[in-house]
Design goal:
By secondary structure, this protein is α+β, with helices and mostly antiparallel strands. The protein contains eleven helices and eleven strands. It is globular. The chain starts with a helix and ends in a 5-residue tail after the last helix. This is Aminoglycoside phosphotransferase family protein. InterPro entries: Aminoglycoside_PTrfase, Kinase-like_dom_sf, Pseudomonas-type_ThrB.
């Protein structure tokens, strides 16, 4: 970072209420959407400064309205210490600052926990799941219908399927013939696409506040005491089904292989990791779930994995325009790992359902 850029970021940071005597601003974390910086001050206070990617989140006013509403509600409805609650630092009464360089926001820095990129153990996944379950529990009662869709139809699998069909038909890169097996995999499971969105529309499943990106690195973890501290990265907080959050956590956490692993023999659905996630998540929020949610929660893992694989395959057919790639065929490899996981989960669906029932205190 050049001195000019650093000085400009220091000036932007000091525009936020209470942020003063900034001594350094440095790049922070491994996020791919927003630009994130650690702000350090003479008084030893630290903050997180972010430049919001307003090409993806085009309505910054409503985006920040979501985040302020949710963070304030959690702070008021949790027993956690206030210093462990994420808080938006205002600037002249507003939740973000619009500058020539873009839109910036500032959060308090939470020192009690760290973001972990990979947690290969059942214990680590359990702690992550407890964090997201606690997030859901704290937001039980929040008026989800007031939330703005920061990314419309983000987990509307029926809409995702239509986009997939269009990508197959258009075949802009001439790749369709080489991936017919993967195309057939998606179309053979079209029946999955409307199960959750249809149940939400019919009122069979309740709308809740959902995080929609429940990867393990979006929970700050106290690695000394192995406990969740708080959930971060709230840009995709919207109205949806709790199946999405449970499902995406299992999708990203219960696989034995990397997301872009080429050797599919290394990619397997881990029953141990799934059970750990279910225990942590359901243990925190289970008493608030409806019977319909309990009965379908395991299906959320199958659906989110299927949807993610379909999105990777769609992007591959369209020329890799959405997901960042670092090598030829990476999105296709990503799609194949997801489809392998779907197959494994389908074979273990009864185990998955019974495990949720167990931790929800239900018996057949």
């Amino acid at each position: 970072m050049s001195e000019t850029n650093k000085n400009r970021l220091i000036a932007i940071a000091e525009a936020f209420d209470g942020v003063e005597g900034v001594t350094n601003v440095s790049q922070y974390g491994m996020g791919h959407i927003n630009d994130t910086y650690l702000v350090e001050t003479k008084g030893k206070e630290k903050y997180i400064l972010q430049r919001i990617n307003d090409k993806i989140f085009t309505d910054v006013d409503k985006l920040m309205q979501n985040i302020v509403g949710v963070t304030e509600y959690i702070s008021a409805h949790t027993a956690a210490p206030k210093e462990e609650c994420l808080r938006v630092i205002p600037t002249s009464g507003k939740p973000y600052l619009r500058t020539e360089e873009g839109c910036f926001r500032t959060y308090n820095f939470i020192s009690a926990g760290v973001s972990i990129e990979h947690v290969p153990t059942a214990e680590g996944l359990y702690v992550s799941a407890k964090g997201f379950g606690a997030f859901q529990a704290a937001l039980d009662g929040y008026p989800a219908e007031t939330l703005f869709d920061s990314i419309p139809d983000f987990h509307n699998t029926a809409v995702r399927f239509k986009k997939f069909v269009a990508a197959v038909e258009n075949d802009v890169c001439g790749r369709r013939a080489s991936v017919q097996k993967e195309i057939d995999f998606v179309t053979d499971r079209q029946r999955y696409c409307d199960r959750v969105v249809g149940a939400l529309d019919r009122g069979e499943l309740p709308y809740r506040v959902t995080h929609n990106d429940t990867k393990v690195n979006n929970v700050l973890i106290d690695v000394v005491n192995m406990r969740p501290v708080t959930v971060i990265d709230l840009d995709t907080v919207m109205r949806g089904s709790i199946l999405y959050d449970f499902g995406d956590g299992v999708r990203s956490g219960a696989s034995t292989g990397a997301e872009d692993e080429r050797d599919l023999t290394k990619v397997n659905f881990s029953k141990e990791l799934y059970a750990a996630y279910a225990k942590g998540f359901v243990g925190e929020v289970g008493g608030r779930l409806t019977e319909a949610e309990i009965g379908m929660l395991h299906f959320g893992a199958i659906l989110m994995t299927y949807e993610c694989g379909m999105r990777f395959l769609t992007d591959y057919l369209e020329g890799d325009t959405y997901f960042k790639t670092h090598r030829e065929g990476q999105n296709l490899d990503r799609a194949r790992t997801q489809f392998k996981m779907v197959q494994d989960m389908e074979a273990e669906e009864e185990f998955m359902r019974e495990t949720v029932m167990k931790y929800a205190g239900k018996r057949n």
